[in-house]
Amino acid sequence: MNDHDVSLNGIFGFGDPNTPPPKLSDATKVLAELKARLPKSVPPAYWPAVLSQIQHKITEVLDVPISSVIGGAWRKYAPFLKYCDKDRYPPDKTSVVPLADHAISSSFKPFIEIFADEKAVGTLNFEVALSILLEGANVSIQDGKFKTLRLVRGRAKAKLSCEGAVLVDLTSGDHELPGEISFGDGFPIRAGAGSAK
What is the DSSP secondary structure assignment for residue 190, as one 8-state letter? Predict the structure, then answer.
């Protein structure tokens, strides 16, 4: 990720040292089941360390750049495919494409596997629901890749759930995106043609 991008962590505020990590207390039933599955060789004092590690891992699985979410959604938009034609759009030329105001909705289902004494204890399933609104946007494309997104305004709403229990709900407000989002070395318009860095 770079200085002009933001991750899902940034939207949820988990990258801010003043923001507490997500509380798992609303997922008590699932956590109790996981705790009951711990091997008898594991001392009771181990469980708080497990919870701490789970909270840390949540921020790891949410370290997804918004540019990847946007680029992944745009791959489904057929008019972008013409920019992969190297005869019409040579790799050394950059095309700046104005975009109509639009929204992108996406969901992710990351999970965390719990192990103790090298034995699988269980899995915590999460769901992220994300909505991004882009206004006054244009995207630069070079060599069949999205390179930079410039916005008059970009807003995001998000919700994080664990096993059906809502941990964080930011759907009632807006997270302002930066005016420029970089796709790093480029996000390929065609899937499988490489990835952004």
Answer: S
